[in-house]
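Support request, please re-run this one:
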Amino acid sequence: MPNNDRLLVQILLLALLGASLWVLAPFASALFWAAVLSFASWPLMRWLTCAFKGNETLAAGVLTCGWMVLVAIPLVWLGLNVADHVRSATVFLRGVQVEGLPPAPVWLNELPLVGPRLVNAWETLDEQGTAFFASIRPYLGEVGNWLLVRSARIGGGMLELALSLVLVFFFYRDGPRLAAFVHSLLHRLIDERADHYLALVAATVQRVVNGVIGTAAAQGVLALIGFSIAGIPGALILGLLTFVLSLIPMGPPLVWVPATAWLVWQGDFGYAIFLGIWGVFVISGVDNVLKPYLISRGGNLPLVVVLLGVFGGIFAFGFMGLFLGPTLLAVAYSLLGDWVAKEVPVPPDEPALPGADDEKVR
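Re-run finished. Output below.
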């Protein structure tokens, strides 16, 4: 084929590839999560395929239905409970706006130094409640708009999650063929190093999945224990919410900080101090120890590379960066290591002494 024709074919192929990526761009997040979920649970898929005597479609359907039950039902249950709490808060605010604040709690007056001042501020706010709510009404509108935007994003995330649970079925069913295609493509690009980098990416993603899910489960259990000891109502729901929010950075404090504030409101200062300490050093503190350990365990990557990959990936790509960041740094670290190993000459075992060649000639 002439060079001009070959160049034209390459340009057409690149244009076709770019158009295909453009079509798939709206579904990139759903495809990514479906791929991660199927990869992380592939041993279970292999076991179900053997149990169903090689019927991959049936195994994929059963496993996908199991994920829908495990993910969809808790999220719906959690959403209904959150909706109930939001409705109760709305009723409380309307009652305060109409009837005023309830009497100041006794413990508020007993606080040293600032107690009487806080009681006076409470009574002043109760007397001027109408004017106060009128002054903050514009800010309430801004807060409402902010919540509306966040609700829309949460709704979009739920749709992406639902699409991921649908796509994961096809990743399960066609997983071996997709893996063979990626393997052939990498062999075409980088020859004999394809197996090494495929194994590196697979191991990195598996460790990140184990680290994220394992840390979230540990934080959820520890939060449940702390809420139960402190006597927080709905401890099981709050523990489940902690598990869900543990998947995002700085998520658990969104649960245990309001719970601690509620204990202060009730006057249970002892349990409030306990829950505050438990939240800072146990619930949130375990994330700084357990996640890096689980992600770096069994790999040859330095811990600092893992930490930079996790946090830098989150800032660069959002939540997907939790998986993309360490994977990209692992591949880059391995590529640089291979390149340096090839460039640095290997010294001989016994270096020749000056004048040795002259002695041999004599």
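Confidence is low (pLDDT under 50) at residues 350-362. The first helix runs from residue 3 to 24.
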